[in-house]
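Human: Here is a favour to ask of a fellow structure person. Comparing notes only helps if you start from a blank page. I am asking you to supply a protein in sequence and structure-token form. Write it directly below this note and I will take it from there.

Assistant:
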Amino acid sequence: MSYKTRKLAGYDAILTELYADFDLEQEIGQVDMDTIAILEASDRKLAIIIDFQTKLNFEDILLGANTVARGEAPVWHHPKVKKVYLVSNDPAIQAVAKGMSSPTFGSLNIQVVHSVDEAKVHVPTI
């Protein structure tokens, strides 16, 4: 499997790990559906943590940003999303995350961190 999405045990968060064989163009829709299912089943707001264990090209990064923030049903604007954490050291992801805080993308609350453990420090525990 090229990704895994799950409720992070002990935290008010969803963790999605994107592995080396992840194909953003083909799989982002399923990732969004998996995330929405977890959000809908939750009785509280959740953070989303995306762990980029793959290297995406700039075109894929922009496609992903548009899908999750400006698409038909943008998952990162779901009413149960508290904040989004992107785990990456890629300067392109850092730049796009900063741009997604603009009104064009709905002023999203995104923070880039260097590890899942760093993201977990900011997320409430259950």
User: Anything to note?
Assistant: Strands lie at 3-7, 13-18, 46-52, 81-87, 110-113. Residues 19 and 52 are 7 Å apart (CA to CA).
